[in-house]
Write a sequence for this structure.
């Protein structure tokens, strides 16, 4: 287990972490800036629309500043009041810096994704987070 | 850039990803199940309470089923309507399986963290996500 800035663990830079810890069997967090987006579809029950959105999200992987990408759907964890599993699709990206996140936002591939897919969703919630 | 299940990229298992890709300079997503928690403090302006919560979260790193941990605060990205930067602290964990996430939930270190720190927050929102 590797934690960025974890107690008793040396803080690591993203690139260093991936290289220093792999091979020892420890997983690493790819980079310090997270961009986590949750999508609620207009047609929440449409698997076709869900898959169209997922396909659109996969095109974003070509944007170089993205250090890692995780596309997901709600996991079948225990139902609890605090767990929001009402979204249909999510995207988590890692960036090295806030400037890289901005470069992604403005990248033509990202703009094309929005133009192609924004008709599919009714609501988007974004959390941008800096590792401490 | 490595994407789990990304178009044109081989899907990878978490452990394999970390070992196979590091050294080639590509970052990897540590595991398939994400558990992302956002905390709103009762005293939102208290850096002491924020730091107390962060210290509590760091103790969770000792729980073996956690494949990677990212503790964060809102990043200074562009202000947009869809971005929720109103929380004070976040925790992102990676697990290999939903069963591991449940084991974490029930782990004594996690229970101790909740007992020690729940007085600090007024609201928690959790997103559990399975990579596709």
């Amino acid at each position: 287990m590797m934690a960025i800035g974890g107690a008793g663990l040396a803080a690591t830079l993203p690139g260093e972490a991936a290289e220093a810890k792999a091979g020892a069997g420890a997983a690493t967090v790819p980079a310090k800036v997270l961009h986590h987006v949750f999508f609620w579809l207009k047609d929440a029950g449409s698997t076709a629309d869900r898959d169209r959105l997922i396909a659109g999200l996969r095109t974003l992987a070509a944007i170089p500043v993205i250090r890692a990408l995780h596309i997901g759907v709600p996991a079948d964890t225990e139902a609890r009041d605090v767990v929001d599993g009402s979204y249909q699709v999510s995207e988590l990206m890692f960036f090295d810096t806030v400037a890289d996140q901005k470069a992604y936002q403005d990248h033509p591939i990202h703009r094309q994704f929005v133009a192609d897919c924004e008709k599919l969703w009714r609501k988007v919630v974004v959390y941008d987070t800096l590792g401490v």
Q: What stands out?
A: Strands of chain A lie at 2-3, 33-41, 68-74, 89-95, 121-131. Chain A touches chain B through 70 residues (CB under 8 Å).
